[in-house]
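Input (structure):
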C-alpha cells in the first residue's frame, strides 16, 4: 500500500533563492576532487579534511568523526584528517572483475555514535540451469545487500552483534541500532524496510512507491524527528521526492493507511542525484547532482503535507561536490598557514640570500632531520599510525614522480608512490605491509626514505624519521 497526493514538481533553478535557515553549528561533509571536505550549511566556509586523494564517499557521526571510502578500504577520519583506522571488509577484493564474485564496499554510512558502519555490497554468482542443454545452461545472477562492520577494524559477517542482509542497499541509520534500507535488488521486496542489526534475517517491511509513474525508490534518509523522509526516485535517479509521516507504524507492514508515508512533493533535475541527507533539526535537505552540492529548506508539516511551506528551488552552495552527509558537528577553524622551515622568519637584509647558509636549503641546518640525513625536499611527517601508515608532506621542486619506503631496524615495512603534476607542496601516503603492522604492534620509530625523480635532472633524495603510534 502507498498513500498518494498530488506531487508539486519543483524544477531546480540555476539561480539560488535563499539558503535554508538551519543552525550554523552543523556541517555537511562531502567529497571533491578525491578529497574529503566540510562546509557550513550556507556554504560560506569550507574546510579541507584530507590532502592525499583517492576518496569517493564520506559519512559523519555526531561527534564529527567520519568514515570515508578510499578504493576498497574504509578510513575512519578525525576532523583534522588524521586516519584513525584503515581497514578492509569481507568484500574488498582487489582482483580483476572476472576473477572475483564480491564487489564493494559502497555507500558507507557511520552510526550516530560513531561505532558502527553499514555498507552496500554486490555478489555475482554463476549457476547451471537444469532445464537446458549446453552451452546455454549457465546463468549469471547479480545480488546486492547491506553488511555491517565496526568502525575501527575489519569485521567478518558472522559477527553476532552486527551481521548482514541480502536484498536491499543504501543503509541509512535511524539511530544507533536501527537502519533504513532501500533500493531492493529483486522483486517482490518492498522499496523501504527497517533492519535492526544483530537480528539475522529479520527485516520490517514498510512500503513501495509506484505513484506518479515512479519506477523505483533509491537511497534515502529520514529526519531524526521521524516526520519526513526523502529518497532519490525516477528511472535514472533524477529526482528527490519528499514524504510526510503522519503516524509512526505500530506494526510492519502496516495495517492502517495513516501509517504509510504520504508522497508530498518532488524536486526534479536533469542529472543523476546522490542520496539526500537531512539536517539534524529536520529543517534542511541536501543532495548533490551534476553541478554540485545543493540545499533546500523544508520546515515541519504539523497539519499535514504542505508543499507551499518548502523552498521551491535549491541553492547550489559548493560546485563540484559529491556524496554529502549532514551532521551536528561544527566545521573546524581554518588551519593556520605552516611556516616554511627553509626560510628564516627574520631575514637579515645585510646578507646575500644566495650565499647565506641560513637561507640555502643545501646548507641550512634546519633542513637536516634527526640522525643527520639530508632533507633537501623539506619533508615532514604530518601523522603516523600503525593502521593509517605515514603521511609525509614535502615541497616538490617541479613535476615528477615521488617514491617512499619505510624501514624499521633496517627492514622495509611499507611503501608509497605518487605522481606530482607541478612544483609546490605535496603529500605522499606510505602504507605499512601486513608484516610491518605486526612489527609495529607496540609502535616504534620508522625511517622514511624519499626519492623524487623530476622529468629532467637528477633524482633528489631525503630521509626523515616518524614515530608510529599503535
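Output (sequence):
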Amino acid at each position: 500500500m502507498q498513500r498518494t497526493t498530488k506531487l508539486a514538481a519543483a524544477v531546480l533553478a540555476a539561480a539560488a533563492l535563499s539558503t535554508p535557515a538551519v543552525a550554523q553549528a552543523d556541517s555537511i561533509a562531502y567529497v571533491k576532487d578525491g578529497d574529503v571536505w566540510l562546509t557550513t550549511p550556507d556554504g560560506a566556509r569550507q574546510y579541507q579534511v584530507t590532502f592525499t586523494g583517492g576518496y569517493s564517499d564520506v559519512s559523519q557521526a555526531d561527534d564529527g568523526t567520519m568514515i570515508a571510502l578510499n578504493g576498497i578500504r574504509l578510513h575512519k577520519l578525525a576532523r583534522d584528517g588524521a586516519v584513525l583506522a584503515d581497514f578492509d571488509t569481507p568484500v574488498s577484493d582487489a582482483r580483476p572483475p572476472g576473477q572475483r564474485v564480491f564487489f564493494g564496499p559502497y555507500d558507507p554510512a557511520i552510526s550516530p555514535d560513531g561505532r558502527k558502519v553499514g555498507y552496500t555490497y554486490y555478489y555475482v554468482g554463476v549457476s547451471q540451469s537444469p532445464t537446458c542443454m549446453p552451452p546455454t545452461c549457465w546463468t549469471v545472477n547479480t545480488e546486492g545487500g547491506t553488511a555491517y562492520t565496526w568502525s575501527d577494524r575489519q569485521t567478518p559477517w558472522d559477527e553476532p552483534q552486527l551481521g548482514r542482509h541480502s536484498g536491499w542497499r543504501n543503509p541509512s541509520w535511524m539511530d544507533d541500532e536501527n537502519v533504513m534500507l532501500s533500493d531492493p535488488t529483486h522483486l517482490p521486496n518492498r522499496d523501504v524496510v527497517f533492519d535492526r542489526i544483530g537480528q539475522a534475517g529479520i527485516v520490517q517491511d514498510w512500503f513501495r512507491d509506484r505513484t506518479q509513474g515512479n519506477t523505483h525508490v533509491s537511497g534515502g534518509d529520514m529526519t531524526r524527528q521521524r516526520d519526513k523522509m526523502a529518497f532519490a526516485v525516477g528511472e535514472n535517479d533524477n529526482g528527490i521526492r519528499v514524504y510526510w509521516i503522519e503516524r509512526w507504524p505500530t506494526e510492519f507492514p502496516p495495517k492502517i493507511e495513516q501509517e504509510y508515508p504520504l508522497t508530498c512533493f518532488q524536486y526534479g533535475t536533469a542529472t543523476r542525484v546522490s542520496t539526500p541527507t537531512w539536517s539534524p533539526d529536520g529543517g534542511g535537505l541536501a543532495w548533490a547532482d551534476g553541478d554540485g552540492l545543493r540545499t533546500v529548506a523544508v520546515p515541519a508539516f504539523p497539519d499535514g503535507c504542505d508543499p507551499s511551506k518548502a523552498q521551491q528551488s535549491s541553492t547550489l552552495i559548493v560546485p563540484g561536490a559529491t556524496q554529502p552527509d549532514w551532521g551536528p558537528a561544527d566545521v573546524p577553524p581554518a588551519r593556520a598557514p605552516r611556516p616554511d622551515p627553509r626560510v628564516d622568519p627574520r631575514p637579515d637584509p645585510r646578507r646575500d640570500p644566495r650565499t647565506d647558509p641560513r637561507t640555502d636549503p643545501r646548507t641550512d641546518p634546519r633542513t637536516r632531520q634527526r640522525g643527520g640525513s639530508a632533507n633537501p625536499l623539506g619533508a615532514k611527517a604530518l601523522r603516523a599510525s600503525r593502521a593509517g601508515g605515514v603521511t609525509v608532506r614535502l615541497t616538490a621542486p617541479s613535476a615528477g614522480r615521488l617514491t617512499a619506503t619505510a624501514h624499521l631496524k633496517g627492514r622495509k615495512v611499507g611503501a608509497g608512490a605518487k605522481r606530482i603534476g607541478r612544483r609546490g607542496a605535496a603529500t605522499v601516503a606510505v602504507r605499512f605491509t601486513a608484516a610491518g603492522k605486526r612489527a609495529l604492534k607496540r609502535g616504534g620509530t620508522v625511517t622514511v626514505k624519499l626519492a623524487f625523480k623530476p622529468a629532467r635532472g637528477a633524482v633528489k633524495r631525503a630521509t626523515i624519521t616518524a614515530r608510529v603510534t599503535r
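Notes: The chain has two domains: 8-327, 368-468. The mean pLDDT is 84.
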